[in-house]
Amino acid sequence: MKKKRKAGFTLVEVLTVVVIIALLAALILGLAGNAQKTAARKKAEAEINQLSSFVTDYRAQYGQVPADKAALKKNLSDAKHSLSNMADPWGMEYEYERSSPQTFYLYSKAGNATNRNSWIGNLP
């Protein structure tokens, strides 16, 4: 007498499929995380360029750059600039320092206040 084999999957087959799906999910999530970091850096670079253009225009109009970050924020706010809050993609403020009446530093700490190698912009 022959035994009828029941239809279905064995435990090994099911576990193999689960492991493959988990590996694919980890790979996709890892790539998505890297894409988000790259996008945040590119956004910060673009915003620094916008803010630098604003400061350069200010210097052309008034003969000097704003005295400090508070003055820059006030001028951005008065001009109703979209970056008047000076927030970078990581939720921190862009840093601004006047190095002379004609020059300035403008940068983002890129979410890492201690690692200067990851900072973006015109650094002191």
Name the descriptors.
three-stranded antiparallel β-sheet; 2 helices; 3 strands; single chain; 124 residues; mainly alpha
Helix fraction, binned, reads 40-55%
Instruction: Categorize the overall geometry.
Output: rod-shaped
How are the strands of the largest sheet arranged?
A: 1-2-3
Q: In what range is the share of β-strand residues?
A: 5-15%
- What is the averaged pLDDT score? 92
- The whole-angstrom Rg is 26 Å
Largest sheet: 3 strands, antiparallel
Structural class, please? Answer: mainly alpha
| Alpha plus pi helix count | 2
Low-confidence stretches: none
Order of helices and strands: HHEEE
N-C termini distance: 87 Å
Tell me the number of strands. Answer: 3
Oligomer: single chain
Could you please describe the fold and organization of this structure?
With 124 residues, the chain is mainly alpha-helical. The chain has helices at 11-62, 69-78, and strands spanning 95-98, 104-108, 120-122. It is built from two helices and three strands, in the order H-H-E-E-E. Strands 1-2-3 form a three-stranded antiparallel beta sheet, covered by helices on one side. Strand 1 (95-98) and strand 2 form a beta hairpin.
